[in-house]
Design brief:
Helices cover 83% and strands 0% of the residues. It has 291 residues and is mainly alpha-helical. It folds into two domains: 148 residues, CHAD domain; 133 residues. The longest helix is centred in the last third of the chain and has 39 residues. It starts with 9 loop residues before the first helix and ends with a helix.
Amino acid sequence: MSRLKPRSPARDVARAAFADALGRLVRQDPLLRRDPNEDAVHDARVAVRRLRSDLRTFRSLLDEAWARGLSARLRWLQDGFAAARDADVLLTRVRRHARLLCDDDRARAAEMLAVFREERDAAYARMRAMLDDRRYAALLREMIDLVKSPRCSALADEPACEVIPPILGDAWSALRKRVRRRARPPSDSELHHIRIAAKRVRYAAEAVAPLAGRRARALARTVEAVQTVLGEQHDAVIAGARLRASALDGTAFVAGELAMIEQRDAVDRRRAWRHAWRDAERAHRRLRRAL
């Protein structure tokens, strides 16, 4: 794909973003089949999530019904990677926090970890089966077609310098609106949706970076910080809920201890995300002045 320029057709910006996401997935495919690990699963999940986000961000440049249908079909793939990734995250968090317990409680925590390892292994097995499913091969072909010859609207032929800034602006406005409308203090659900909106802005800023340069990259970094803090907060909430659900018989007390550790982590991330958000606002103002 040729180098992006301000007067390049807007479609080229979208195609570059789609190509980047597809490349990330294709690079992980052999490893996921041969010897999957946490990093490969994470990267594959991010690749599909990024592609679905880009389909939404650039929807004004695409045939809407076609883009919406592809995104819906990709949800199956994203969910398969997400189940394996979530099992990895839970196992890692519980293993790390179990080290903070006394010797007797660590022994009981080991029983819980064995259960979580079994769940992780089952999620990995389902993921491998997904990669052998005919739907996966069909989706890969659709994604290749998306990169090579996306079904575009008339707006896609307009210069990127005129079309892309409003698209990024829409993504930012959606994020800012969620932040402003949150409750005080915000609910876990509100923070989760702020994180999703932050990811969309980050991916859009990274797509714009070849045109807008360092200011777009700065916005992407600062919004990624918001996303990271809230991602850790979300992981803590989910892990705490899973531990509470597993509190049976002799493991109940240990599960309670671990759940409190997760709750503490969730509270810490609640405090931290606002600082990251202010950095993102400043980066957005600088980028807006440059565009």
